[in-house]
Amino acid sequence: MSNIRLDKLTRQQINEITRDSIVVLPIGATEQHGPHLPLSVDNLIITEVAKRACLQLKNELQIYSAPVINYGNSHHHLPYPALSLSSETVLQVLKDLLRSLAITGFQKIMILNSHGGNDEALRIATRDISREEQICIGAASYWSLSWDSLANAEALYSGRVPGHAGGFETSLMLALAPEEVQLDNLPDKWKHEIPPSQKQTSKRLFIQKPGQSVGKEGISDDASQASKDKGEQFLEIIVKDVCHSIKLFNNQCIKE
Questions:
Q1: Is the peptide bond before 162 cis (omega within 30 degrees of 0)?
Q2: A GO molecular-function term, please (predicted)?
């Protein structure tokens, strides 16, 4: 079966492929990404990563991508703006969708995430539904699967990975949807706005303060050096590592 989009299949086709197949469930967010990128950045990136990974793996595995979950927990970007779900709602949406896939007959589900605000819900949903439905579930943010490779490729050149609307995400968007990138809207001079007190905080300590966490421009780092070439390089690395992780996931899920 050539189609890798789960929602493009008929009920009969679903019945024929469920048990041995992997379903990739992408989740993103709809939130501000600075003055130069659309609110849909996270959704565009994770949809394309899931699609490319499934296409690369389809000759080795039975694998399909579910439609992206377009909303996540983005309260820290309100009201700049974001269309945000509460943490409890994100968790319940994930649980309901995982449960639905399990009832349909899928035994292996891989959640791919592109928004840091969803992390906690992913872990809880994965643990709870795996135990409840006795199925194999994996979950990861795409950048966490590619961190070492991106670092070795000097993706951490001058900014943050994944950051927020900075050089990394802007490069990805220039590769995926250049018509939606408005570089002319970037600030003339980049100024990193993290307060000195926050810079001194241990990375092991999680702190959340009221309001937006990336400064008044809504950007984590300088995006002026972003390029399509960098974005294509990043995508190639990300998809390769995501494919590798999906194969590891599949091997772990095979019942002895």
A1: yes
A2: metal ion binding
Q: The domain 6-186+210-253: what is its CATH number?
A: 3.40.50.10310
Beta bridge pairs of residue 109: 23, 137
Crossing angle of helices 119-133 and 87-104, rounded to 10°: 30
Sign of the dihedral through C-alpha 228, 230, 231, 236: positive
Quick one: average pLDDT of 92-111?
A: 98
Residue 219 DSSP code: -
Closest CA to 235 of 163, 149, 127: 149
The two tokens of residue 198 are 């926050």
What number of CA atoms fall less than 13 Å from residue 68's CA on the CB side?
Answer: 23
pLDDT-derived band at 190 (thresholds 50, 70, 90) equals: low
Three-class secondary structure of residue 118 per DSSP: helix
Q: Are 49 and 235 in contact (CB under 8 A)?
A: yes
Strand pairing report for 82-83 and 30-31: antiparallel
Which tokens belong to 129?
């539904």
Q: Is the pTM of this model over 0.85?
A: yes
Which residues are paired to 24 by β-bridges? Answer: 65, 110
Gyration radius from the chain CA atoms? 19
**What's the confidence (pLDDT) of residue 222?**
87
